[in-house]
Structure formats: structure tokens, C-alpha cells
TrEMBL record:
It comes from Gordonia mangrovi. Residues 27-176, 197-327 form the Allantoicase domain. The gene is alc. Belongs to the allantoicase family. HAMAP family: Allantoicase. Pfam families: Allantoicase. Keywords: Hydrolase, Purine metabolism. This is Probable allantoicase. One of its GO terms (biological process) is allantoin catabolic process.
Length: 344
């Protein structure tokens, strides 16, 4: 069964609460563009929102935090190809034209492709089948333009086209990571990681920052790269729920409060369950936490799980949440079978 994206939040399209698979921080890269004279295309996949300072002129004109091409004097289009940091199923894209007011593209389109292995730019331009996921559509200036995507297959690259030219600040590709399951066969790995197919399915509070940050690769570089809740004024506690890469056994839990100094949780618990309707069981009992510390706990539990829930007491922030382990034999075989059938 295809996992469904998290529910919508207010009037925001639901897919925007899913991870951005194109982020540089996740390993994404702009591998080609036909033109970025005014502002380089690599800005498209930066994590922070685009910034702007008026009257900041460089040799090529006003400095923009985005991708901007020269004015087109002949017919044609401008394009940029992004290699996704985490290949996967795309639920929607956002073409963010923030601060581009008189120089945004009047129309955009998006295509995607699935390529195995590491390929050259020449192959991407000439030997790859590109699938339209957003048809040529009007875009607004100085706006986050969201576009829902209905394709259900796995993609590794996305190609953004501006018709005919102009500027885009950020290009967000929201979806669910789907890695090659053959890589899971070579030892323990993080069952919760976005790049391995982990997915946040529910969260009590994300006032300051997204819980998706918990499942990003590597170590956080500052507090803004973690998950932080607002301050609780009741007797409850905050929590987050994760669907794992597959049914597996967890052997090591990592709770990292790095850079959370005066706002780290006082304690945390971790529970698991086997199946959406299974009963929750204890993985890590309520454990006191220290600020700005990477906590690691060896787990002696021979009980498979498909989902995990971390409760923090009472509130606060966490940089990373990692669950190292292995897939069950049945889960590994099922994922490989799906992969070979071309299912995502």
C-alpha cells in the first residue's frame, strides 16, 4: 500500500509538510543549467528562505538570492536540472519566486526522470526519458507557487523550465524517499532516515521548526537544523511519530540535543509498534536528557517494528532522532521484490 502524505495544516497544501528531496543539505545538487548569468542556479536548493537587500549591486546588477537568467532575445526556454538528494516519490513541487517581481518567469513547467547509478550531464541531456509532472503553467511573481504532482513512480532528477526566462528563488521538491533496497543488505543502517525511506507521519507541535529535520543526514550545524516546539503551559508533552524504512529490529537509539542549550527536553521515551493497528511497546524507557549532547542507547529488544514514536518531556528541541538496526528478512525480500517490479 502506498503511504499517504501527512494531513494538511490550515490552508497549506499537504505536500509541503513532507521533506524537500532536493535540498543541498540532503545531498541535492544542481548539475546543469543552460544559463545563470545574473544569479547561480545552485541557490535553488538552499535550505533557508530567500533573502533580499535592495540596492545591493554587483558587477552583473542587483544581487538576487536565487537563479536568474539573462533577458532572452531569441525564442526558447531556460532550464536547470536538479539531482535529488534523496530519490523518491514526488507529491508536489513549489516554484518560489520570492523577491522576483519584474523579472519572474510568466510560465514554468517541471519534468522528472529516474536514472540508476551516476550519470554524466551529457547522458541527462541526451539519453534520459523525462516525464512531465507539472505541465506548462502560469507562475506569479514574489510568490511561493505550489503545484501538486500525481505521479507515483520513483524519480532521481527534476528539471525546472522557465518559459521563456527570468528568476526563481527556490525550487522545492516535496515527497517520500525511496532508496535502492539492495543497499540495506550490508549491515545496520538508520531505519528512520529520510534518505532510507523514513517519514514523519504525525507531530504534536512544530512551532519553530519542522520535525523533518530530525531525520536529516549527518549532524546538525546549529539549532535551526533541528525540531523545536513552542513552550507548553499545560500538563501534556510533545511527541513525533515516524514510519520506518521497513519492518525491522532496532538495536541503537540516538537522541541528539546538540545546540539546544536552554531549551532541550528534560527527558524522552521511545516506543514502537508493528503495523498501523499494533499496540505500542517500550523501546527506550523515560530517560533524562542533557542539553547540547548526543545520547546513544544500546537496545536489547528482539521485537520488530514498523513505526516509532518519540515523546519529549515536556517540550523543547531535538537535533536528530536516529534508529539503527536491520530489516527483517521478510521486509527486505518484500522491498527488493517491489523494487524489481518497479513499484515505489
Amino acid at each position: 500500500m502506498t503511504p499517504q502524505p501527512p494531513p494538511s495544516s490550515g490552508n497549506r497544501p499537504h505536500f509541503t509538510s513532507m521533506p524537500d528531496l532536493a535540498l543541498r543539505d540532503l545531498g541535492g545538487a544542481v548539475v546543469w543549467t543552460n544559463d545563470d548569468l545574473f544569479a547561480e542556479a545552485q541557490n535553488l536548493i538552499k535550505t533557508p528562505p530567500a533573502q533580499y537587500q535592495p540596492a545591493t549591486f554587483g558587477h552583473k546588477g542587483q544581487v538576487y538570492d536565487g537563479w536568474e537568467t539573462r533577458r532572452r532575445r531569441q525564442s526558447g526556454v531556460d532550464q536547470a536540472i536538479v539531482r535529488l538528494g534523496a530519490p523518491g516519490v514526488v507529491y508536489g513541487v513549489v516554484v518560489d519566486t520570492s523577491w522576483f517581481k519584474g523579472n519572474y518567469p510568466p510560465h514554468i513547467s517541471v519534468e522528472a526522470a529516474a536514472v540508476e547509478g551516476v550519470v554524466s550531464v551529457d547522458q541527462l541531456l541526451n539519453d534520459v526519458e523525462w516525464v512531465p509532472i507539472v505541465d506548462k503553467t502560469p507562475a506569479e511573481g514574489d510568490t511561493r507557487n505550489p503545484f501538486k504532482v500525481d505521479a507515483k513512480n520513483r524519480f532521481t532528477h527534476a528539471r525546472l523550465t522557465m518559459h521563456p526566462d527570468g528568476g526563481v528563488a527556490r525550487f522545492r521538491v516535496h515527497g517520500r524517499g525511496v532508496p535502492n533496497p539492495h543497499f540495506f543488505r550490508y549491515g545496520h543502517f538508520d531505519l528512520a532516515a529520510l534518505e532510507n525511506g523514513g517519514l514523519i507521519t504525525a507531530c504534536s507541535n512544530m512551532f519553530y521548526s519542522s520535525p523533518n529535520n530530525l531525520l536529516m543526514p549527518g549532524r546538525a550545524r546549529h539549532m535551526g537544523e533541528g525540531w523545536e516546539t513552542s513552550r507548553r503551559r499545560d500538563d501534556g508533552n510533545d511527541w513525533v511519530q515516524v514510519r520506518l524504512a521497513g519492518r525491522g529490529n532496532v538495536n541503537l537509539v540516538e537522541l541528539d540535543t546538540s545546540y539546544f542549550l536552554g531549551n532541550a527536553p528534560g527527558a524522552a521515551t521511545v516506543r514502537g509498534r508493528d503495523g498501523e493497528n499494533g499496540e505500542w511497546f517500550e523501546v527506550l524507557p523515560r530517560t533524562e536528557l542533557q542539553p547540547d549532547t548526543r545520547h546513544r542507547f544500546v537496545i536489547d529488544l528482539d521485537r520488530p517494528m514498523t513505526e516509532a514514536r518519540m515523546d519529549i518531556y515536556p517540550d523543547g528541541g531535538m537535533a536528530r532522532f536516529k534508529l539503527y538496526g536491520t530489516l527483517t528478512d521478510d521486509a527486505e525480500a518484500e522491498l527488493i521484490e517491489q523494487w524489481e517490479r518497479g513499484e515505489a
